[in-house]
């Protein structure tokens, strides 16, 4: 009788330790510096001529993300920043600027949550809203919203019980019609790669 009772006690202790883990330390806050590298692909302007004439500037931006761990390995991450200004180029010449706000929601799987080095993969959705379009002195603009797939790979390196270093790469599907006088003139496939380095704090 002693062995089944001992096994039951150990199983119950393990269950409560997992629940305590989820309840006491579910939150992870990260701050990152992110380099945005757009793909710079586009349809021919006006439906004729060469493709890929429209480009969007690279940029380094600050980013804050909040992760909630449902289990030691499964987490949901919300990626946030403030509206960012980019320059748009046509055949290498600036035609104006726009702002975009790109919140992203991801589901992640962490392969070694208890280890010092913990890689992860993630997938989710990115919703980008465009504003303050100032293209061709107001004669052109980008459509208002873009909704697309987001893929992610990264790793955390623990410094102690709370702090960690983070490296992260994301690929976003980000498309927008380019409108001139309200009519579609081209379609830009921005599709940026985001390379980030930052620090995290586990509560």
UniProtKB/TrEMBL annotation:
It comes from the Bacteria. Keywords: Signal. PANTHER family: OUTER MEMBRANE PROTEIN W (PTHR36920:SF1), PTHR36920. The keyword Nucleus does not apply. It is found in: Cell outer membrane. InterPro entries: OMP/PagP_B-barrel, OMPW. This is Outer membrane protein. GO terms for cellular component: cell outer membrane. GO terms for biological process: transmembrane transport. Coiled coil: none annotated. The lineage of its organism: Bacteria, Pseudomonadati, Pseudomonadota, Betaproteobacteria, Burkholderiales. It comes from Pseudoduganella namucuonensis. The keyword Signal applies. Residues 1-22 form the signal peptide.
């Amino acid at each position: 009788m002693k062995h089944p009772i001992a096994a039951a006690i150990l199983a119950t202790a393990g269950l409560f330790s997992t629940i305590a883990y989820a309840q006491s330390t579910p939150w992870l806050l990260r701050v990152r510096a992110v380099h945005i590298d757009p793909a710079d692909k586009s349809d021919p302007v006006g439906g004729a001529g060469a493709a890929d004439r429209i480009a969007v500037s690279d940029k380094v931006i600050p980013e804050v993300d909040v992760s909630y761990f449902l289990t030691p390995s499964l987490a949901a991450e919300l990626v946030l920043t403030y509206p960012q200004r980019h320059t748009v180029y046509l055949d290498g010449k600036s035609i104006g600027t726009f702002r975009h706000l790109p919140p992203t929601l991801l589901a992640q799987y962490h392969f070694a949550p208890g280890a010092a080095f913990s890689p992860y993969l993630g997938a989710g959705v990115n919703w980008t809203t465009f504003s303050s379009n100032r293209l061709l002195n107001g004669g052109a603009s980008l459509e208002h919203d873009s909704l697309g797939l987001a893929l992610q790979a990264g790793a955390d390196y623990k410094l102690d019980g709370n702090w960690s270093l983070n490296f992260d790469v994301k690929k976003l599907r980000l498309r927008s019609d380019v409108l001139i006088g309200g009519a579609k003139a081209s379609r830009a496939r921005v599709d940026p790669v985001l390379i980030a380095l930052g620090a995290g704090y586990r509560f």
